[in-house]
């Protein structure tokens, strides 16, 4: 398990997340970030090139040492980036201390996503924004069947990724009010590609 989790899985994650079809989502979501930004599960740093000049610093939280090593080498502008070796379920930051929280394709994987969302809300300042793009539960019954059926096996090979998490209601139950949410299938296998993209404010 050690080699798979520590070496192979980070490389697979990096490879799969380099899919060029994800780029427009990254551009839109990261382009809306501003101020002091906390990125949850920064992975191999594929969002870092998209942060604009209105971002003062990025706090890049990531529990996988293998992915952090890749993210440290990722292309980026002069932007200050600090890496935080922690899990989203226990964010080592003060209450109301960040302007923007970013999550891109992490809520599928974080083991206790409800606790993580509570933490994201805690660290966001009043009026701050949660920016997200996630894949999750599809609206079509046939696709949901496949998502429910595949998830137990998929989780085991993909480092914990669930295909069937109801992203919108999870974010709302975490104490956020949706400001914008757009959903739809990206090109690709339907169980893996139903996307939720948008922004939410702490209630
Ligand atoms: C599919 S990858 C997405 C990586 C990156 N956000 C991107 O868009 O390329 C899922 C990420 O969630 C991270 N992750 C898994 N469990 C986590 C946790 N408990 N807290 C924070 N991040 C976690 C993984 O290490 C990985 O970086």
Automatic annotation (TrEMBL):
Keywords: Plasmid. One of its GO terms (molecular function) is S-adenosylmethionine-dependent methyltransferase activity. It comes from the Bacteria. Residues 38-132 form the Methyltransferase type domain. This is Methyltransferase type 11 domain-containing protein.
């Amino acid at each position: 398990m050690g080699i798979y989790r520590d070496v192979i899985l980070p490389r697979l994650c990096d490879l799969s997340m380099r899919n060029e079809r994800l780029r427009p989502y990254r551009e839109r979501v990261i382009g809306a970030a501003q101020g002091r930004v906390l990125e949850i599960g920064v992975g191999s740093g594929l969002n870092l090139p998209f942060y604009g000049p209105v971002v003062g610093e990025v706090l890049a939280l990531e529990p996988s040492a293998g992915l952090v090593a890749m993210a440290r080498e990722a292309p980026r502008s002069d932007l200050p980036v600090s890496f935080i070796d922690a899990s989203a379920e226990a964010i080592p930051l003060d209450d109301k201390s960040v302007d923007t929280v970013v999550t891109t394709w992490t809520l599928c994987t974080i083991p206790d996503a409800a606790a993580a969302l509570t933490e994201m809300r805690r660290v966001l300042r009043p009026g701050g924004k949660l920016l997200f793009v996630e894949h999750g539960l599809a609206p079509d019954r046939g696709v949901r069947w496949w998502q429910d059926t595949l998830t137990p096996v998929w989780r085991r090979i993909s480092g914990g990724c669930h295909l069937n998490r109801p992203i919108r209601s999870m974010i709302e139950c975490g104490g956020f009010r949706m400001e914008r949410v757009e959903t739809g299938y990206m090109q690709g296998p339907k169980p893996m590609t139903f996307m939720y993209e948008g922004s939410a404010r702490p209630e």
